[in-house]
Amino acid sequence: MNSEMKTINKTRSTLTNVLNEKIDEIKIKGDIHEDYTATSCIKLKSQTYYHKWNKTINKDSIEGLLKKLNIGINIPSLYKSGVTFNNKSWSLENNIVNEEAKNEKDLLERAFSIGEAFVFFYVTGTTDCHCENFAFKDNCLYWLDTETLTAGYQFKNLKGMENNELNRFTDNDYNLSELLQTEKMNFAGNYTDFSLYSILCKDAVRNQLDIEQMWIAIENGIKKAINSISLKEKEMHEWVRNTEIEKCRIIIRATRIYDKIIESLHNTRNDIERDYMSKVWNDRLQSVCINNLSRGNKSKLRNIINRELESMLNGCIPFFHAYDINTNNFQRKYIANLASSRVKKMNETIMLGKVKEIVFNHIYNKESKVL
User: Fold this and answer.
1) In whole angstroms, how far apart are CA 109 and each of 22, 96, 142?
2) Which of 36, 46, 34 is nearest to 8 (CA)?
């Protein structure tokens, strides 16, 4: 039985035990991880829901933070939730279908929301914010995947393991949210923009809206969010200190890289070839960042790679929490202070009248001289 069927069966058996209605269809919609869990699209009585395993920061807590900071980002509402016999929590979320912008008013409201979200994700060190993790409904921005909230503050990349301070996003790193520009290269060497802004631009062209009007709306959203967060900085500190942010997801490598490795492992003809290919990948992954690491970090890196390969040999995408990576150096106070320093930088940017410059530089992938 392949990993997809195991995942579907696990989801079906979990829901069958608690739902008094027939499950019409289950489709995998996300990465399959080592415990055969994945986000799935569920159809019940012609209604569509999304089944998710709750492995990361509690969504009620995240929703509470958004309300405290007065940020206009929504999270899909729950249809049902529960806990399995082995204490794994799950939820069924109502399906949010992205709606196209119909007119200039829609576009400007959405651009304003993107500006708000940009600041929130910058201040909270959130990553993996490409367009597939968002949807607009009734011109409200919905955040569909909250797994990586604070991830940027807790881990940057494997190459920086030797210096814990450098291995976090700094005040000058504001290319976190990916909302305004996201260039991703595929194996053919082509770049594709997966940002919400690029989608908005296409809608603007279709609705004959001047792009500069959208910049102004984004700028206004940024200013509003900075002011809101500045007024609630104490509440943000309290949230960081009282929330299990170490449960956030750390994305070690892009899914496309894992997919390529899984394909090569499973295209082998026998166990001998498979073991050989696993060793080849082990050596390649270590060689990328093993140089100049201390003995302790070399050991940590090997453990990460061993776990990655164990998952991929089973056809699954590895899943790491922050506590898997930063077992010795996790400091809530440090993260809270970093967030505050970003709020301060943003306030200085407003005072200097440089917000529009941020928008322009970010969209056109120029180095920011402001943050």
Assistant:
1) 39, 18, 13
2) 36
Please name the residue that has the structure tokens 């529960």: 82
**Residues 251, 245: Cα–Cα separation, whole Å:** 15
Query: Please, which residues bridge with residue 23 across strands?
Result: 44
Q: Which own/partner contact pairs does 182-189 have at CB distance under 8 Å and 24+ positions apart? A: 182/130, 182/131, 183/365, 184/130, 184/254, 186/256, 187/256, 187/260
Pairing of strands 73-74, 140-143: parallel
Q: How far apart are CA 93 and CA 115, in angstroms?
A: 26
Q: Is the pTM higher than 0.90?
A: no
Structure letter (DSSP) for residue 267: T
- Please compute the mean of the pLDDT values over residues 275-300 and round it to a whole number: 83
Q: What tokens appear for 42 in the block?
A: 């569920």
Which residue type does 317 have?
Answer: I
Residues of the chain by 3-state class (helix, strand, coil), percent to 5: 50, 15, 35
Mean pLDDT in residue range 81-100 = 88
Please, are residues 246 and 321 in contact by the beta-carbon 8 Å criterion? yes
